[in-house]
Design brief:
By secondary structure, the protein is of the alpha+beta class. It has two helices and nine strands.
């Protein structure tokens, strides 16, 4: 009787050990499940956009601000793009002031949009765009970069350059709205990045 009991306990122990081993084997490797590792999960390409004009989160200098002011201001900053997936064909940028709500709605102030920036360009030069790129705005201005123009005061406005890497060119006219651009990018976006600048006007 004692021998049969010992054999039963031994068999039960082996079953439990095998169950634990199987469960552990089915778990994804540590750190591999959340960011595109072998354990599955979503993919997060290391897309980056950088500029020498101002630090990420820093103050946008007067050269790149000014709105409709002209003069030495209102110059589009240069950006470099890196880390995009190999399938990237073009880039798109949406530049907007997130500290504003218009007309009682959730829309903010759209300062500039550009798409069909060739992936081969690796970015955009200061004050101009690579050949083939299409620029538009739908809140203020028409087709040209529109620099920050927040009023003077204690509060800085936050201006976001959103960069999208796309696996195709977009068939959109220069009159396209932000909603139309976002709809056209659906299903074609391979990666996304952002760069933030702060700005407030100077008191007179």
């Amino acid at each position: 009787m004692r021998t049969r009991l010992l054999l039963s306990l031994t068999a039960l122990t082996m079953i439990l050990m095998l169950s634990v081993h199987d469960a552990a084997a089915q778990q994804p490797p540590a750190g591999g499940g959340g960011r595109g590792g072998r354990g599955g999960g979503f993919n997060l390409p290391p897309l980056m956009m950088t500029t020498d004009a101002f630090p990420d989160g820093g103050i946008i200098p007067a050269k790149h601000a000014g709105g409709r002011g002209g003069g030495n201001g209102n110059v589009q900053p240069a950006f470099k793009f890196s880390g995009a997936p190999d399938t990237t064909v073009t880039y798109a940028i949406i530049f907007h002031d997130i500290d504003v709500a218009l007309g009682g709605n959730t829309d903010d102030v759209l300062h500039w949009m550009v798409w069909n920036i060739p992936a081969s360009a690796g970015g955009i030069p200061e004050g101009k765009l690579p050949e083939g790129a299409v620029a538009a705005t739908s809140t203020i201005g028409k087709g040209a970069y529109f620099g920050p123009g927040a009023p003077a005061g204690e509060r800085y406005h936050h201006y976001v350059f959103e960069l999208y890497a796309l696996n195709a060119k977009l068939d959109l006219p220069a009159t396209a709205t932000r909603a139309e651009l976002l709809a056209a990018m659906a299903g074609k976006t391979t990666a996304k990045a952002a760069y933030v600048g702060r700005y407030r006007g100077m008191a007179q």
